[in-house]
Amino acid sequence: MSASPETWAVLLAAGSGTRLAEATEGRRKQFLPLDGAPLYWRSARTLAALPALRGLVFVFPESELEQREAELREWMQRVPLGLPWQAVPGGKRRQDSVRHGLRALPRECGRVLVHDAARPFASPALILRVLNALEQGASGVVPGLAVTDTIKSVDCAEQVLTTLDRAALRAVQTPQGFDRSVLETAHEQALTHEWDVTDDASMVERLAEQTPHAAPGGVVVVPGEEINMKITTPADLERLRPQQPRQAVTGFGYDVHRYAGETDTGPVRSMVLGGVPIPQAPGVLAHSDGDVLLHALTDAILGCCGGGDIGDHFPDNAEENENRSSAVFVKEAQALARQRGTRIVSVDLTVIAQIPRLGPHKEHLRENVARLLELPMACVNIKATTEEHLGFTGEKRGIKAVALVSALRDADCMQ
Q1: Orientation angle between helical segments 292-304 and 362-373, nearest 10 degrees
Q2: Of 138, 160, 341, 385, which one has the fewest beta carbons inside 10 Å?
């Protein structure tokens, strides 16, 4: 059984970027900085991380080839990609640059990925979808997104000719994958017959129409990605700006409430946990609604943003807090956290009580806390335990709760 053909990638970084020239002060977009490195380097690292890839061909502007190759060598020394590579000069058109890149491929290469360096956010999962479709016999593979706008065909006078069926349309992206021999044949035909196309798949499509046996698998579309955008307009440059760094922070909360006894004269509240009434449970002595779980959660949220404690914001001697819903405390603490650049990402809550039995209520509590915090259910965990008849809760005299909140906080808020 013969070994599978090698897969190489041709990374196109030879464009002039005229539409962005004014916004970038004449710098080509593929060399703009992204995370401290040239834009094309992001795609190179993503491609090189794929186990199936055996090498890279970089296509740079002919006038800058020596400069860019030296730059590339420096980056290879800093962060070795662990793959053989070459740098070649581009051509006047995109298809000329691809043709130059194909000529640099080694004999062992049987499949090739062609990717635009101006799409730095393509994910490994996207590239694997392209490679898998090649494995299944396609001659060409393109990632594509469903078209959501209504598309109309117009003439040179902007008169509408027809409205196209968008259900049959796809906005295509790169990397595009090909059987190498098919793509080379398509480029030969394009050169001979002076085809002028915007992507390599168009060449293979023409080849398949004219000579079906030359591209037996045809061109297929796999799901693309919204994030795999092409840097084209000045507005797109915002995607390249350094993101506000965030620091992981943790907040801890603890609260306890005593169960009402026969001789207690203070305010007695029906038990509520996480905003959920717990039937047939002991009454709780409390100024507010006595929700021990949400009180602990409020303190944990305040801890994430340096906001003090629940007593600082909602004192238990204030009239406005009498029998007040603890959900209000949570939402106001969350609002303060947001004001201080803090975003909650997960919570882990534990209720400690000998009675009542909370197992049947845990999922309802979890749903309610997730809704309150506007978090996915997967980011909220609630546990219930006893203290084996020991201590305050073990003697059925009260209930405790602890909360651990994980969040991300803007780094400038930490200074």
Answers
A1: 40
A2: 160
pTM of the model: 0.63
Q: Please tell me whether 232 is known to bind a ligand.
A: no
310 annotated as a binding-site residue: yes
Tell me which fold the domain 246-414 belongs to. Answer: 60s Ribosomal Protein L30; Chain: A; (3.30.1330)
Give the span between the Cα atoms of 339 and 243, in whole angstroms.
Answer: 18
From first to last of its 415 residues, the chain has per-residue pLDDT tens of 345 789 999 999 998 877 776 777 778 899 998 888 999 999 999 999 999 999 999 999 999 999 999 999 999 999 889 999 999 999 999 999 999 999 999 999 999 999 999 999 999 999 999 999 999 999 999 999 999 999 999 999 999 999 999 999 999 999 999 999 999 999 999 999 999 999 999 999 999 988 888 888 889 999 999 999 999 888 888 888 766 678 899 999 999 999 998 777 778 999 999 999 999 999 999 999 999 999 999 999 999 999 999 999 999 889 999 999 999 999 999 999 999 999 999 999 999 999 999 989 999 999 999 999 999 899 999 999 999 999 989 999 999 999 999 999 987 665 5
309 among annotated binding-site residues: yes
Q: Is 311 annotated as a binding residue?
A: yes
Residue 385 labeled ligand binder: yes
Residue 24 assigned to a binding site: no
CA distance 110 to 187: 16
114 annotated ligand-binding residue: no
151 is in an annotated binding site: no
Task: Say if residue 388 carries a ligand binding annotation.
Answer: yes
Contact status, residue 156 vs residue 148, Cβ threshold 8 Å: no
Residue 18, marked binder: no
3-state SS, 378-409, equals: HHEEEEEECCCCCHHHHCCCEEEEEEEEEEEE
The CATH number given to 6-240 is 3.90.550.10
Taking the domains of the chain in order of start, what are their residue ranges? 6-240, 246-414
Q: Is 287 annotated as a binding residue?
A: yes
